[in-house]
Amino acid sequence: MVTKDLVILARIANEFGGSMLDSLETRIAFQKTVYLLQLSGLDIGYVFGWELYGPYSKSLAGNVRLYEESRCEVDKVAEQLVLTQWAQDMITRTRKFLSPPESPDVAPVKPSEWLEVLTSLHYLATLDYRNALLQEGSPAREHVTKCLLERKPHLQGSPNLVRQAWESLFSFLGGLPAAPCSAA
Description:
Blueprint: H1 4-15, H2 24-40, E1 49-51, E2 54-56, H3 58-69, H4 71-78, H5 85-97, H6 111-129, H7 139-151, H8 159-174
Antiparallel strand pairs: 1-2
């Protein structure tokens, strides 16, 4: 069955490189990509809660499964979907943000791990502070970083990765234009 939600997911999947269920890593990356697209202002309509790998939407996961079941049919309709220029710009902007930065101070990480750190920082910041644009050195930013490291102890030895994620998140959010109400 083809629904608007599935068509939008198909378009996003195609914009960001194909299947969403190939592996745990691609499922995590897709969840985080949709989270960031919504953060950019695209109104996709998913609500995220906290799970093991950070922000997670159960309804998104369910729609991904439905999409995979009727992929060919949905993709045919998705090919017809025309995005506004603004939506295309936000997709392009988000795509640039998805890859971990190359830095001599940060050990290489998988894209899914990078996205997990980025979205987890934002999610935790908005839980307590309603604003992820927390200045470096502020007590609020230190509190969110501490919360992240408590929930994700494997990041304890990666302070430069967390710092780089804060910088990237600040850059991404600080440069977003005002969003219109819909993507298509």
